[in-house]
């Protein structure tokens, strides 16, 4: 699923619709959804072995309890005019990933939001079984929320696209990052992450091939980003002389993923985008091994987009 670009000045502007996988033990996913501004919420599924009559009674009581907690949490974090028409749904299912996917597709959601199951001592993000399954199969973009974040009160102030492969990247991630930056009217930063290079100064007069490849990737991605901006804004009529999107590039490097990710500055208003692995099936999310390593040290919320050809 790719994000629709809003038409400036349109009477019916596009919105982001989010489905939050919520289990009442953490508000991180809900806070991230509220931070983006618009979403529809769906708590996680429950199963319990009971006789049919007792099960129906238990399910009704559980629905009332969860709905009450969810609505209270929504009221604390999101204006009522940004709630979905059905803001809370209790899903009766045996497969949580399938239930979340179905709920998201039924709601027309752009992103499924899931929080980390990690503590800061383990990592910033540790995928739960549900998150892990969706990271390898979801037809809907995934919003993953690391532990211990302090989000900007101003909302998203910059969209970042993390480039993790020196070879050809899936262009869906770049296209969606461009659309998201245009939608939110914030700058776009392209970050090539190189965890195999301890120190640029130690490379001597002939930079390593990986360093040259990373710089080349950034140049290609920047050129492609400007082409995409031109395509996405081709139908807009504006007298503004400024370019519709500011694009910057940077190289993050270090000995290992943690040092590489922390080698560049991150802001409280940063949102990180990732494309799926190039081998992903059509219209499916696939987070490869490099993406999984990057996520462990992600300093900001991450959105992974399904691969879409063309």
Automatic annotation (TrEMBL):
Residue ranges constituting the UspA domain according to the UniProt record: 172-306
SUPFAM superfamilies attached to this UniProt entry: Adenine nucleotide alpha hydrolases-like
InterPro entries: UspA
Pfam families: Usp (PF00582)
Name the UniProt record assigns to this protein: Nucleotide-binding universal stress protein, UspA family
């Amino acid at each position: 699923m790719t994000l629709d670009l809003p038409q400036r000045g349109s009477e019916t502007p596009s919105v982001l619709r989010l489905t939050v996988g919520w289990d009442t033990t953490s508000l991180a996913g809900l806070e991230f959804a509220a931070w983006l501004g618009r979403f529809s919420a769906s708590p996680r599924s429950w199963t319990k072995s009971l006789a049919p009559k007792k099960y129906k009674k238990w399910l009704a009581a559980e629905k009332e309890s969860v709905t009450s907690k969810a609505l209270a949490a929504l009221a604390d974090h999101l204006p009522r005019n940004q709630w979905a028409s059905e803001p809370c749904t209790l899903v009766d299912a045996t497969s949580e990933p399938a239930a979340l996917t179905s709920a998201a597709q039924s709601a027309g959601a752009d992103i499924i939001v899931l929080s980390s199951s990690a503590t800061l001592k383990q990592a910033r993000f540790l995928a739960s079984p549900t998150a892990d399954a969706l990271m390898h199969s979801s037809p809907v973009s995934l919003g993953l929320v690391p532990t211990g974040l302090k989000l900007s009160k101003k909302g998203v102030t910059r969209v970042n696209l993390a480039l993790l492969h020196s070879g050809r990247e899936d262009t869906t991630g770049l296209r969606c990052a461009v659309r998201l930056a245009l939608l939110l009217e914030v700058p776009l930063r392209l970050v090539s992450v190189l965890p195999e290079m301890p120190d640029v100064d130690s490379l001597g007069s002939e930079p390593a091939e990986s360093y040259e490849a990373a710089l080349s990737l950034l140049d290609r991605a920047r050129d492609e980003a400007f082409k995409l901006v031109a395509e996405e804004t081709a139908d807009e009529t504006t007298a503004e002389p400024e370019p519709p999107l500011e694009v910057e590039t940077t190289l993050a490097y270090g000995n290992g993923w943690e040092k590489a990710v922390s080698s560049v500055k991150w802001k409280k208003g940063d949102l990180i985008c990732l494309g799926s692995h190039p081998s992903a099936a059509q219209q499916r999310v696939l987070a490869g091994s490099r993406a999984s390593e990057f996520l462990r040290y992600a300093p900001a919320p991450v959105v992974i987009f399904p691969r879409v050809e063309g």
